[in-house]
TrEMBL record, chains A, B:
This protein's name: DNA-binding HxlR family transcriptional regulator
Keyword field contains Transcription: yes
Pfam families membership: HxlR
Species assigned in the record: Janibacter alkaliphilus
GO molecular function: DNA binding
Annotated ranges, domain HTH hxlR-type: 17-114
DNA-binding in keyword set: yes
Keyword terms, alphabetized: DNA-binding, Transcription, Transcription regulation
InterPro entries the UniProt entry points to: ArsR-like_HTH, HTH_HxlR, WH-like_DNA-bd_sf, WH_DNA-bd_sf
Length: 114, 114
DNA sequence: CAGTATCCAAAAGGATACTG
DNA sequence: CAGTATCCTTTTGGATACTG
C-alpha cells in the first residue's frame, strides 16, 4: 500500500501516488482530532491527552510522531524540571486543519443517536 | 471504543459521544475515497473497484456495507442477468462528501514526493 | 457481475506499569 | 510531566479462490 517516489499528476485514487499516504495519515480519527486540538495554538502532551478523551499515551505518542514526520506539526521540548513539551501546527498543518475542521463540524451536526 | 446512546452536546472529542463513531467511519481512507467516487452519481461495484485502485473486493464490500448501515449511501440490486448493483449517495452522504472532497483536494495539492 | 469465503499478515488500538 | 515498554486483542488490509 505504500507509494512510489515519482508521480506527475497527484491523484488520491491512484495507488502509487504519494498523496495516498498523506490521505491515509489524515483520514484517521486520532490524527483529525489531534490536529484540531492544536488549531488554537501550541499544546502540551498532557493537554492533548486530556482533550482527546480515551486516547492512550502510546497511541497519542505514535500519532504525534507520525504527524511530525510528515511536517504537519513541530515538537519542542523545554529543558525544565518537570519537563515540558509543546506541540504546534506548522503552516502545512494549519492548512490541513481547515478541511479537517469542516469534517468534524459536519460530523457533530449530523450524527444521530444510537 | 463504541459510543453511548444519549449525548446532549455533540462533541467529537468526547469519548462517549455517538459522533465519535461517525468520525471513525468517515475518517478512513477507503470511506473517503468511496464517497468521493459517488459524488457524480450512482456507480456499480466494479466501477468503484476500478476507481479505488488497489482495493480488494472484500474490503470494498465491507466499506460499502458500513456506509450503507450508517445511511450515507444506498445499495440497489437490479434483477438482471448478469447482475447489476448500483450504489448511490443519500442526502446525508452528499453532505459528508463536501468536507471529504475538500480534504482530498488539499491532500492532492500539498503532498510532497517521496 | 457482484460479491462471499478463507487464510493470513500487519497495523491499530488499549491497559497498565515503569522511567528520565 | 512526558513519554516508553510490554503485552495483548481487535481491526484492517491483502491475495486468492469460489459461487449465485
Amino acid at each position: 500500500m505504500s507509494s512510489a517516489d515519482t508521480c506527475a499528476t497527484r491523484d488520491v485514487y491512484a495507488a502509487m501516488c504519494p498523496c495516498r499516504d498523506l490521505l491515509d495519515l489524515l483520514a484517521n480519527k486520532w490524527s483529525a482530532l489531534a490536529i484540531g486540538a492544536l488549531e488554537d495554538g501550541p499544546r502540551r502532551f498532557g493537554q492533548l491527552r486530556a482533550r482527546l478523551e480515551g486516547v492512550s499515551p502510546k497511541v497519542l505518542s505514535q500519532t504525534l510522531r507520525r504527524l511530525e514526520e510528515q511536517g504537519l506539526l513541530t515538537r519542542t521540548p523545554y529543558p525544565e524540571v518537570p519537563p515540558r513539551v509543546e506541540y504546534e501546527l506548522t503552516d502545512l498543518g494549519r492548512g490541513a486543519a481547515v478541511p479537517l475542521a469542516d469534517l468534524r463540524l459536519w460530523v457533530e451536526a449530523n450524527a444521530l443517536p444510537g
